[in-house]
Design brief:
Order of helices and strands: HHHHHHHHEHEHHHH
Oligomer: single chain
CATH topology of the largest domain: Cytochrome Bc1 Complex, Chain D, domain 2
Radius of gyration: 22 Å
Distance between the termini: 29 Å
Number of helices: 13
Largest sheet: 2 strands, antiparallel
Shape: globular
CATH class of the largest domain: Mainly Alpha
Strand content: under 5%
């Protein structure tokens, strides 16, 4: 009995040792991301963040975790228009997809109210519409669980559990979630080919709008969805509402600047077929509706992006086949590896 007890204690001591082994981030053909120098990814730090991401103790009634609204099978998004919190009350905006955060360079949330990913990571815990818990209570719950005291030792060198350490671990895990292996990526590496429809859609996507030469005019999608991540790290008004209809002022609530009214973060189009509904308020259920909006449904307001405003006279002039081709191309941005990667799955 005594020998068995000693062996168990020795095993626990061995497991709970500080381990700063770096985490190898899969960036595919992307440029290296700018990881914060004070929070380099380690294997144990990422693992701790993964545990916290799926931990329901973070919520008031232990019924939901970060993963409740950011599901791996939906490219870490929520297909509900508004996520439902612990009190059964819906949130105010559609949950954003959480992948390729390592390449995000201009704050977080639709309006950018969180400066760093570590800042964003804790806000849903205390939000009354989401987890509705206090960080003090969460820390006490984690302290009572040896899995966490041991993992904090492995990640940080001792068992102290703090708000800052929780946020750093969550930041590490979310930075580790990369989506870099879609059909389009394989096409760029000449490992796959596009169908005729996908190729027509690709050309439309990257061709600029041309008012005076309709035959040479495209969908101009890359104006906002550029870079390898198909975003642009900007905040823009994309014409969802006219001046009097803007009820969610977006970025203006953070900056206080009238010129930011109605502007929201431009999101990545990677995995877009998996992340309906679309826009900050989830008003569009399908990609067809999204394309129809840009084709002929833009609403004018003083902060509407100028490049979009230029198209309002004629619309993009996309016909039914154009729309089908665009959607075919957008679906080549789906990363099936992301959806089943065990490194991102529930560790419990």
């Amino acid at each position: 009995m005594g020998l068995l007890g000693c062996q168990k204690d020795a095993k626990e001591t061995t497991l709970a040792q500080y381990d700063p082994t770096p985490y190898s981030l899969n960036i595919g053909d992307f440029p290296p991301p700018m990881i914060a120098p004070d929070n380099a990814l380690t294997q144990q730090g990422v693992q701790l963040g993964r545990m916290l991401f799926y931990e329901k103790k973070l919520s008031l009634d232990q019924s939901m975790s970060c993963a409740s609204c950011h599901l791996q099978e939906n490219a870490f998004s929520d297909t509900n228009r508004f996520s439902i919190g612990v009190k059964g009350i819906p949130g105010g905006r559609q949950a954003m997809a959480s992948f390729n955060m390592a390449w995000n360079t201009n704050e977080f949330f639709w309006d950018g109210r969180a400066h760093l990913l570590r800042d964003q990571s804790l806000m849903p815990i205390e939000d009354s519409l989401e987890m509705d818990e206090t960080l003090e209570n969460v820390i006490e719950k984690l302290k009572a669980d040896s899995r966490y005291t041991n993992q904090f030792i492995r990640a940080f060198g001792n068992s102290e559990i703090t708000e800052n350490r929780m946020s750093l671990a969550l930041e590490q895990f979310m930075n580790s979630i990369t989506s870099v292996d879609s059909k389009y990526d394989r096409y760029l590496r000449e490992e796959d080919t596009l169908s005729a429809s996908e190729e027509r859609g690709r050309v439309l996507f990257f061709t600029e709008y041309n008012e005076f030469f309709p035959a040479q005019s495209g969908a101009d999608c890359a104006h906002c969805h550029s870079t390898r991540n198909f975003g642009n790290n900007r905040y823009m008004n994309n014409g969802l509402d006219g001046t009097r209809q803007i009820t969610d002022i977006g970025r203006e609530a953070v900056t206080g600047l009238p010129q930011d009214r109605g502007k929201m973060k431009v999101t990545s189009l990677r995995n877009i077929e998996l992340t309906p509904p679309y826009m900050h308020d989830g008003r569009f259920n399908t990609l067809e509706e999204v394309i129809d909006h840009y084709n002929s449904g833009l609403k004018s307001s003083p902060t509407l992006d100028p490049a979009l405003a230029m198209t309002m006279g004629t619309g993009l002039r996309l016909d039914a086949q154009d729309k089908l081709d665009l959607i075919a191309f957008l679906k080549t941005l789906t990363d099936e590896v992301l959806l089943t990667n065990p490194d991102y799955s529930d560790p419990f």
